[in-house]
Amino acid sequence: MMDTRYNVYFAGEVLAGQDLAKVRQGIGQLFKANEAMVNKLFNGRMHMVKRDCDKPTALKYKQAMEKVGARPVIKTADPADASAPPQSKPAASPAAAPQPVEPPPAAPPQTATERIAALAGAPDAGISQPAPPSAPAADEDGVTLAPPQSDVLRPEERTVTEARDIDTGTLAVDAAATRLSEPSSAAPAAPDTSHLSMGDAGEEIPTLSADETPLAPDTDDLDLSPEGTDFADCATPEAEAPDLDLSSIVLAPEGSAVLEEEFRRTETATAPDTDHIALKD
After folding, report:
1. How confident is the model at residue 132 (pLDDT cuts 50, 70, 90)?
2. Beta partners for residue 132, in sequence order
3. pTM beyond 0.70
4. Which residue ranges have biased composition labelled Basic and acidic residues (predicted)?
5. Domain boundaries of the chain, sorted by first residue
6. Per-residue pLDDT, 176
7. Can you name the residues that pair with 14 across neighbouring β-strands?
8. 79 near 50, Cβ under 8 Å?
């Protein structure tokens, strides 16, 4: 089974919270691109920066671009992009002898910087293309992100709701303001309380049962104080004065300034102007 291959694209998008000028500078340093090449990479169109690479290589590009604040787009590579099927050639005539053809010299492999420079310097028709709406982008965990407005569930995962044929021929709509139910019956009459009366305050209710046992405290050791007692023995004793050492404290002479010079208020109150005020006769 052939391993999945990936293409890495860049459409000039920056990550959330990143400064565009710093991202442009980082992309230029990452790919060693000049100002013109950076402008082309940020022209809003999709540019391929790495073609037909394995997953580790695609992740390296992704991490490097995200480190400078750029948002890469990773898509599954189409096998036709990496190797096109050989075209059929017409059969050679038996009379014609094959001519030896010298193979062209193999071109040295390009670095990533050289490929970016070639892509940025090429015309737009050859290096940029609008992003296909149906192509998902794969992240480093292999999870794909569907395009906007795509269906979340596959057809086999959706719940199919069958329409029911309900017979409503026996139903009718009542007129406006029609009651939904019959009014309730009238409330029963109030009970007769003419034979009831209120007892006097403090009167015991003979029919009221007492479940609690009445208290009977022992008061033999208690007595009343003589009349005129001031209960001085119950008062809280006064607190003793603290033993403070005031030998290092002296009083300033009368009329001395309390505040030091730096804390004194120097503003002088100004009398209000009363020249415009006069008393009437």
Report:
1. very low
2. none
3. no
4. 153-167, 261-281
5. 6-79+110-143
6. 83
7. 70
8. no
Buried b (16+ CB within 10 A) or exposed e, 26-55: bbbebbebeeebbebbbeebbbbbbeebee
Kind of pairing, strands 70-76 and 137-138?
unpaired
Span 135-186, pLDDT tens digits: 444 444 455 566 666 677 777 677 877 788 888 888 888 888 788 878 888 8
3-class secondary structure per residue, the chain: CCCCCEEEEEEEEECCCCCHHHHHHHHHHHHCCCHHHHHHHCCCCEEEEEEEECHHHHHHHHHHHHHCCEEEEEEECCHHHHCCCCCCCCCCCCCCCCCCCCCCCCCCCCCHHHHHHHHHHCCHHHHEECCCCCCCEECCCCCEECCCCCCCCCHHHCCCCCCCCCCCCCCCCCCCCCCCCCCCCCCCCCCCCCCCCCCCCCCCCCCCCCCCCCCCCCCCCCCCCCCCCCCHHHCCCCCCCCCCCCCCCCCCCCCCCCCCHHHCCCCCCCCCCCCCCCCCC
Structure tokens at 229: 């007692």
Both structure tokens of 152: 């979340």
The amino acid that residue 226 corresponds to is: P
Which residue reads 């062209």 in tokens? 104
Angle CA(36)–CA(122)–CA(118) in degrees, nearest 5?
Answer: 80
| pLDDT tens-digit readout, 55-100 | 999 999 999 999 999 999 999 987 665 544 433 333 333 333 334 4
Identity at 172, one-letter amino acid code: A
Residue with tokens 């002479």, as numbered in its chain:
253
